[in-house]
Write a structure and sequence with these properties.
Layout lengths: L14 E3 L6 E3 L1 E4 L10 H13 L4 E3 L10 H14 L7 E6 L14 H15 L4 E6 L8 H14 L2 E7 L3 H14 L3 E5 L13 H7 L3 E2 L23 H4 L13 H16 L4 H10 L7 E3 L4 H8 L9 H11 L1
Parallel strand pairs: 3-4, 3-10, 4-5, 5-6, 6-7, 7-8, 8-9
Antiparallel strand pairs: 1-2
Helix pairs in contact: 1-10, 4-5, 5-6, 8-11
The chain binds NADP nicotinamide-adenine-dinucleotide phosphate.
NADP nicotinamide-adenine-dinucleotide phosphate binds next to strand 10 and helix 10.
Length: 331
């Protein structure tokens, strides 16, 4: 039987304008980097997507290499879209990316027009889509002129294969250059996707200023530092956690859960409880307190985590004392 989405799905979610564009994104978006590949349960993936959509999450973030194996998250997403979400396509914002190694030989990696064009065609086929809403260059490529990469993004919009374009993992100077070239081409860069969490604050060193000055949205990834910023690892490493699953493709490993991190998490957890939130909710709220953030990109391994994380929206305001206390803990 076809899935019927909750009629209340738009009532509790906040939607923020993405930079200077006309596109609204939900304050919380869902990423499919992990837990949606062929090594994972398709039924669990389906339940997560339904739960997310029922909660007002309209934006789903993919990339050519998500899985494992690479490509399988897009393929599974395509299956679920076709089976359950067909009638909701116009209520969904679907993004994908290319930039990291995807296939062998000189045309399966980087930022050339040759690679990006072939990759986007493959992504559309895997997902069964005519177009994606946002296509990103996944990371800067020093071996390709930035003009070529940006011209490729502009081309995809003109071809109707992408409605909007964005960049990911670009440093402030590279981002400013990409944004300027895209503006001159007539296809504005509407969004930047950087890593940002309490444990990784590099975007505060100039990137957020560049984005604000240029009216470009910002959608941070790994806001929980892959689950570290939750109460999950307070008493050891659970067997069902990402760290214990050795998934590869950049997933957190046990040796990254250091004693220093655990000490900080314990202190942050006490502060979160005093705010009436759990640590995951406080970590998401801490990012969303900044008006320059359009949306925060979460990953989940089960549907209940969607509901738990979205509850952060009940309190995204921090007192100055709380901000100071967090800064001291993170020093
Ligand atoms: N552009 C890029 O280069 C890039 C790179 C990485 C990610 N991304 C995007 O960002 C998305 C999110 O990244 P991420 O998965 O690293 O995000 P994350 O939110 O930092 O980590 C997700 C993990 O945190 C745990 N978790 C989630 N909600 C929780 C909750 N309420 N309570 C306790 N634990 C919770 C789960 O771990 P368990 O699995 O252990 O349950 C989950 O798998 C990706 O899917 C992808 O779309 C982009």
């Amino acid at each position: 039987m076809n899935y019927i989405a909750s009629s209340k799905r738009y009532s509790d979610m906040a939607y923020r304008k993405c930079g200077g564009s006309g596109l609204f994104l939900p304050a919380i978006s869902l990423g499919l980097w992990h837990n949606f590949g062929f090594i994972d349960s398709l039924e669990n993936a389906r339940q997560i997507l339904k739960q997310a959509f029922d909660c007002g999450i309209t934006h789903f973030d993919l990339a050519n290499n998500y899985g494992p194996p690479p490509g399988s998250a897009e393929e599974n997403f395509g299956k679920i879209l076709k089976g359950e979400f067909g009638s909701y396509r116009d209520q969904m914002v679907i993004s994908t990316k290319a930039g990291y190694g995807m296939w062998e030989g000189p045309y399966g990696n980087g930022g050339s027009k040759k690679y990006l064009s072939a990759s986007l065609d493959q992504s559309l086929k895997r997902m069964g889509l005519n177009y994606v809403d946002i296509f990103y260059h996944h990371r800067p490529d020093p071996d390709t002129p930035i003009e070529e990469t940006m011209t490729a993004l502009d081309l995809f919009v003109r071809q109707g294969k992408a409605l909007y374009v964005g960049i990911s993992n670009y440093k402030p100077r590279e981002a400013a250059q990409a944004i300027r070239i895209l503006r001159e081409l007539g296809t504005p860069c509407i969004i930047h996707q950087p890593r940002y969490s309490m444990f990784d604050r590099w975007v505060e060193g100039g990137l957020l200023d560049v984005l604000e000055e240029n009216h470009v949205g910002c959608i941070p990834f790994s806001p929980l530092a892959q689950g570290l910023l939750s109460n999950k690892y307070l008493a050891g490493i659970p067997s069902e956690s990402r760290a214990a699953s050795h998934r590869g493709n950049g997933a957190i490993e046990e040796d990254q859960i250091t004693q220093d991190r655990i000490n900080k998490i314990r202190k942050l957890n006490v502060l979160a409880e005093a705010r009436g939130q759990n640590l995951a909710q406080m970590a998401l709220a801490w990012i969303l307190k900044d008006k320059r953030i359009t949306s925060v990109l979460i990953g989940v391994s089960k549907p209940e985590q969607v509901v738990d994380s979205i509850a952060c929206l009940k309190n995204i305001i921090f007192t100055e004392d709380e901000i100071d206390e967090i800064n001291v803990i993170l020093e």
